[in-house]
Amino acid sequence: MKRPKLTVADRFLWVWLCEAWDDWRKSLVIVKPETVIGWHRQGFRLFWTWKIRGGTPGRPAVPKDVRELIRTMSRENPGWGAPRIHGELLKLGIDVGETSVSKYLVRARKPPSQTWRTFLDNHIQSLVSVDFFTVPTIRFQILYVFLVLAHDRRRIVHFAVTAHPTAEWTAQQLREAFPWDSAPRYLLRDRDRIFGPDFVEQVKAMGIKQVLSAPRSPGNEPTSNE
Predict the structure, then answer these.
(1) Quick one: pLDDT at residue 112?
(2) What's the rounded Cα separation, in Å, for the pair 116 and 217?
(3) What is the C-alpha separation between 146 and 224, in angstroms, rounded?
(4) 127 near 188, Cβ under 8 Å?
(5) H or E stretch including 205?
């Protein structure tokens, strides 16, 4: 730590203090810098506590008639958000913050969405999962195993092995797994690039609804490059 440099004014101050205060050495206390910083922060808090004493904390209250006007505009114009209503209020000469407008908007009630566990319980009889896993061979090659799993009894419906998986090959495996009218209602898969447009079109043609896993969830690493 560098030694602080004293200016001429500093020297005159200390000389005058020594002359005017004979017992200044008795009041001298050596403290750590952290202690001085703590004193400063405490003093800062006390200062602002004193400054706002007697004042009204928080934002000024929005008048009742303005609140009712915001709710009416929101109810009669469902497509208007807080910025639009805030702008209309400013045109009427009502100066209120956009955050306050957002607070008093009428929000449509949405039915609660079912949890993942509830979805599985409700549709487990008509839900299958598809995925790839890799198998290294003794010659240091990589084989890709396509697996179709039914969730009702955790049974394997279909599997196939290839060294070069493509979207066309994957779509063909789906047709072989569910011939005729045996297709399930839901198909759970990840966001791997192997499930390309051909696979998606095949799923739609079979009347199956896809359920995609969350992005970047464990196990969503790309299998291959098309």
Answers:
(1) 66
(2) 14
(3) 13
(4) yes
(5) helix 197-205
d(CA 166, CA 168): 5
Three-state SS for 136? strand
For residue 13, is it left (φ>0), alpha (ψ between -120 and 50) or beta? Answer: alpha
How far out from the chain centre does Cα 179 lie?
A: 41
**pTM across the whole model:** 0.44
φ/ψ of residue 65, rounded to 5: -65, -35
Residue type, 64: K
Q: Which of 170, 169, 132 is nearest to 149 (CA)?
A: 132
CB-side neighbour CA atoms (13 Å) of 104? 20
Burial (CB count <10 Å: 0-12, 13-18, 19+), residue 62: middle
Assigned token pair, 119: 């979805």
Q: In the 8-state DSSP scheme, what is residue 182? A: -
For residue 219, count other CB atoms closer than 10 A to its CB.
Answer: 9
* pLDDT of 161 over the 90 cut: yes
Name the pLDDT band for 223 (thresholds 50, 70, 90): very low
CB neighbourhood size of 45 (10 A): 10
Q: Which two tokens stand for residue 225?
A: 């490059």
Q: What's at 82, amino acid-wise?
A: A
Q: Which pLDDT tens digit goes with each residue over 187-207?
A: 989 888 888 888 888 899 999
